[in-house]
Amino acid sequence: MKFGYFDDANKEYVITSPKTPLPWINYLGSENFFSLISNTCGGYSFYKDAKLLRLTRYRYNNVPFDSNGHYYYIKEGDTIWNPGWMPTKTDLDAYECHHGMGYSTFRSSKNDLQAELTAFVPVGKNCEINQLTLTNNSKETKDFSVFSYVEFCLWNAMDDMTNFQRNFSTGEVEVHGSAIYHKTEYRERRNHYALYAVNAPVDGFDTDRDSFLGAYGENSAPEVVVSDQSKNSIASGWAPVGSHHLKVSLAPGESKTFVFILAYIENPVEEKWIGRAEDGKINRTRAEALMKEFDTKEKSEAALAELKKYWDELLSHFTVSSSEEKLDRMVNIWHQYQCMVTFNMSRSASYFESGIGRGMGFRDSCQDLLGFVHLIPDRARERILDIAATQFEDGSAYHQYQPLTKKGNSDIGSGFNDDPLWLIAGTAAYIKETGDYTILDEKTPYDSDPSKATDFMEHLRRSFHYTIDHLGPHKLPLIGRADWNDCLNLNCFSTEPGESFQTFGPSEGPNAESVFIAGMFVRYGKDYVEICRHRGLEDEAKLAENAIAEMEKTVLDAGWDGEWFLRAYDHYKNKIGSKECEDGKIFIEPQGFCVMAEIGLKEGNCLKAMESVEKYLDTKYGIVLLQPPYHRYHVELGEISSYPPGYKENAGIFCHNNPWISIAETVVGRGNRAWQVYTRTCPAYIEDISEIHRTEPYVYSQMIAGKDAPNFGEAKNSWLTGTAAWTFLDVSQYILGIRPDYDGLTVDPCIPSTLDGFEAKRDFRGVTYHISVRNPKHVEKGVASMTVDGIAVDGNTIPLPTGKTEVSVEVVMG
Ligand code: BGC
Ligand code: NOJ
Q1: Whole-number Å distance between alpha carbons of 777 and 799
Q2: Which pLDDT band, with edges at 50, 70 and 90, does 279 fall under?
């Protein structure tokens, strides 16, 4: 069952009922100012950091779900309704929500009054625009009221929901004409405030929540809206809000447009203290200038058109055209869109991530880069250096950092031993895309301390050596607190029955080892070797090659279980992910990574591992993380077995590692299977089961309940997942096979044999490649011939052209 449809021409998903199984959201903003907006207008905004600079308040776990947002109430006679249906939930005569690239449009009507609301963040601006057009489709004149409503957050979202003894006394606002200013904390910090304004004279306003809603009131029926009368309240403490009252009169057929602006304004540091003696009044200069930029419908529409152009341009760097409509839709629009969102948000703010719990993840952001780097390479470069600056001098790293301060989060600390290798992965992707080796020379701090800086190349060296310097009893990499699988905590013990686990300290080991990290080491170690050679570091390149060869041997000796790769050894040297285990006999992660690293490819281990995945882990909705699930809690395994069978890391379909398997299948040349794995979790291909899947049908979710869970097929944690980058990598670089490499673009498709071929356009290092792939023999993999601008070339890497900006490439598979 569907709740909408894809509109590819407009790059939108159109939701046709407000009653989707869960709120289906979109993200506005692509650089500093962001909003989350659901298909019923729920959501919130923040500047740079969802924890530290939150503009509007949102209540996770609210009842009803998703009942705070940026709302517009229309009151005509006794009827009160909202263009996005919530929070009044008044039945609408028409409703559509169009989630597009960086904007959402709501088209609804009630009693022949039509509303069109478009919310977006203009390119390069720190504000959200809400353009509201009202049209009278009746034969009578209509007189009605519009009330806007946002609830301000007192900036630090964590304090905002915990520190009420202070918060109830700090709230302050100013109102000047149609502009409402939220200036809590300005008295002390004087550098920022929020603005909520409309481009028309108002008939009233409110800034105090209790005045607007009424005592014990709720936003489904605010007292001010019900009585059709603003109170012009000025908040003092308690809960500041912003509401404008507009009385509107429309002749039959007439339309009127209002432009609302919600902005974050920051005074430059040098101006921060100007006017300190003036009793804390805000400096409105910047706000007034910004309001002028959006004070007419024409200006707001021009900004929306500019945003659309921005996205058209971004998405034009990689496009495909094939007989598979859903493939084209995903590659040309939604994969890349989700990659941008995960790059911006990491795992911080979604409807499943509160914006408070997690900032930017070290491993997460390095992986997000893989799918983002072709979009805006400069931002990827900056991000790599930001991430590296949170590394410690021994190569280990803070697991997370705050986007605002760019400093490591000491509450979470370090100890995830896969982290350093992801830095090599992200850097290699950046260099392959851009050919820019100058990044290696950038002076980059450790632990955000500029006095402890080296060039960036040294960060890579320390990352690589961190693994070699931390090997365990079998010479496999020590896992530390966990590797990619945060919940596999193998250095655990408990002293008392029923007590939660503790971890071994350095004096007791800790001994647990990871076959997964070994796979990563081999795969990304090869990139490290290439980078060393390019810099003329031949001794280091040789040393690394030897360490990689040694690790491959170790994996085949100590990390192979007969039919698949083992997962790990725990602190007591017991095998994890082995046929000898009671539960958790086979895990997905080492199969993906060891095969991508081609460990035992010639010896047949890779194919065998892929066959085992298919045999033991496959389901109709995707591949589960492990089998059988842990049925009971194992203190020595940590968090993993705390989940009920079939959820999350305990045998859920963890979407993030499905593309690893799809890519691994391309390594063994099985295009049909790579395709099957790709399509089984791919949003466009499973849109028809939206009532089972429940999350947004246009983006990936982190997890789908596995076959051992009661709700098999139900997804959770939509949007912010490494699945976004990895599936784009899978489909673009391994299935379609258009892969940036150090010396040029490689074309190496591994497709379903039924596909006749495809056309692609790829911008790469300033050149546009028009690539045509034909598959006359209906093979799954293999390039029989390649011509570049009509000239046959050896192999399947396009030599870097000189003096050309357009290149035509013809590839025949066979
Ligand atoms: C989740 C993991 C997540 C981790 C982050 C765990 O509870 O299951 O998926 O990576 O928390 O800290
Ligand atoms: C989500 C985390 O963000 C990611 O870093 C981790 O690899 C997966 N969960 C698996 O545990």
Answers
A1: 26
A2: low
